[in-house]
Design goal:
about 60% helix, Serine Threonine Protein Phosphatase 5, Tetratricopeptide repeat, two-stranded antiparallel sheet, globular, 13 helices, mainly alpha, about 5% strand
């Protein structure tokens, strides 16, 4: 679901804040979430990972190529990732990324299936098709790809490619949350906060936000701060609100940074 703007009025100031909803847009990289076997070429794959983590994309590409030639599907996914993010000194190429994901997906790689779903959802390298995105996310989710489960929840909550169905969204979010996906926990909190598909319940919303925050989810931390700032289901407490906003800001949450700056001037 798209976040709704909420105005929070407190004595002496006005804050424009985002409620704790869901933004369907993902991060700037494709998603790898499920555990995949690496096979007999594990050494080359691991060397590729080490190079990638050090920022040496060309060396990473070399080792991922070796591993993929030996049948390592996760290495194929990593090459697709490099094509997606314009790594290894190559231009960004969604079409080539898709080709690598399709190769890995044809060999049963759930992360690749999830990434293909992401490309279709965003119209990158292909014509945008939420129907095809859902089909690929479902294939990935059936193999345990937790981010695919969360993405299905997003699509059902926003009504993209399917009729809007908050109960279906809750079902997918719960499956993802059971596998420790904090974005899904945050989304369940949002459903309870707004009464979408469930009876509105600020206490249950807070419980889920706290679970997500325990997993370092900055959006959840930001929303907990909002709850304390506005007194939604909890006593209004600006000190606690500021503590949560600072936690979120420390993790790079720009909305929290804005509010920390505003509250610090009070």
């Amino acid at each position: 679901m798209i976040r709704q703007l909420k105005l929070i009025y407190l004595p002496g100031f006005l804050i424009l804040a985002l409620s704790a909803g869901l933004v369907v847009a993902q991060t700037t990289t494709t998603q790898s979430s499920s555990v995949q076997p690496t096979g007999p070429d594990d050494a080359d794959y691991q060397l590729g990972l080490q190079a990638f983590q050090k920022g040496n994309d060309q060396q990473a590409y070399f080792y991922f190529q070796k591993a993929s030639a030996a049948g390592n599907t996760q290495a194929m996914v990593k090459i697709g990732d490099l094509c997606y993010i314009a790594g290894a000194n190559a231009p960004q190429n969604y079409v080539l990324a898709l080709a690598w994901f399709q190769k890995a997906a044809s060999l049963g790689n759930a992360d690749a299936m999830n990434n293909i779903g992401y490309l279709y959802a965003n119209g990158q390298g292909v014509a945008q098709s939420f129907q095809l995105a859902i089909a690929w996310y479902q294939k990935a989710a059936a193999l345990g790809a937790v981010k695919a489960m969360n993405s299905l929840g997003d699509l059902y909550s926003s009504g993209q490619g399917v009729p809007k169905d908050y109960k279906q969204a809750m079902n997918w979010y719960q499956q993802a949350a059971a596998l420790d996906n904090t974005d899904a926990m945050n989304s369940i909190g949002s459903l309870y906060e707004n009464g979408y598909g469930v009876t509105q319940d600020y206490k249950l919303a807070m419980d889920w936000y706290l679970k997500a925050a325990a997993g370092e989810n900055s959006d959840a931390m930001f929303t907990i701060g909002q709850f304390y700032l506005a007194g939604w289901g909890v006593p209004r407490d600006q000190t606690k609100a500021l503590e949560w906003f600072k936690k979120a800001a420390k993790l790079g949450n720009t909305n929290a940074m804005t509010i920390v700056a505003a509250l610090s001037r009070q």
